[in-house]
Amino acid sequence: MYGERVRESDAGRWERLFADLEDQADALERAEEAAQVGDRVRAEVGDVRLYDRLRAAVGQQLALTVRGAGAVAGALLEVGPDWLLLGEPYEREVLVPFAAVTSVGGLGRHSAAPGSQGRVAARLTLRWALRRLARDRAAVCVFLADGCQLGGTVDRVGADFVELAEHPAGEPRRASAVRGVRAVPLHALALIRRP
């Protein structure tokens, strides 16, 4: 009888030991899966570009810091692969190349999936946005990355530059008002504001 009680208590110990080992194995497996999920998430986030973050923020109020122009704020109206368009108060629009942006505030937690913009949207580059300004013939104020400001009308857009017909702010582009034409390399643009 004594031997039977010993065997029963030994059997219970073995069952508890095996149950404990199974629990430990399950915990290790869950920890390993969590680590793999974390690695995958970090890898996916590593593929997200500023463009993808901004595509998910269209319509939101953003606060930018722009090299050569300082703080700029407004509603995100449009975004391209290398530019964004903000709507400022009083119906002014500001075109900002990504290259001049030093920080963006006001972004939510969401991002658009990288590569989901489509082939046409992927080709709507800064040069395309500048050509829209040239087509509209609207007077603009151009801020350069070094802090200089120029006023006039975008005349032409080249492969790596924009030409501005300089004339007084508030005046339409007329041959008599144009003081000169200035070529500005695209990398020197900080922002272009259309009143």
Keywords:
alpha+beta, 195 residues, rod-shaped, 4 helices, 10 strands, ten-stranded antiparallel sheet
Which secondary structure elements does this structure contain, and how are they paired or packed?
Elements: H1 2-45, H2 50-55, E1 61-66, E2 70-80, E3 83-87, E4 93-97, E5 101-105, H3 119-122, H4 126-136, E6 139-144, E7 149-157, E8 161-166, E9 180-185, E10 189-194
Antiparallel strand pairs: 1-2, 1-5, 2-3, 3-4, 4-10, 6-7, 6-10, 7-8, 8-9
What does this entry look like structurally?
- With 195 residues, the protein is an alpha+beta fold.
- It is built from 4 helices and 10 strands; from the N terminus they run ααβββββααβββββ.
- A 10-stranded antiparallel sheet has the order 5-1-2-3-4-10-6-7-8-9.
- A hairpin with a 2-residue loop joins strand 2 and strand 3 (83-87).
- The protein is rod-shaped and about 105 Å long.
- The model has no long low-confidence stretch (mean pLDDT 87).
Concise synopsis of the structure shown:
This protein is an alpha+beta fold. It has helices spanning 2-45, 50-55, 119-122, 126-136; strands at residues 61-66, 70-80, 83-87, 93-97, 101-105, 139-144, 149-157, 161-166, 180-185, 189-194. It has a ten-stranded antiparallel sheet.
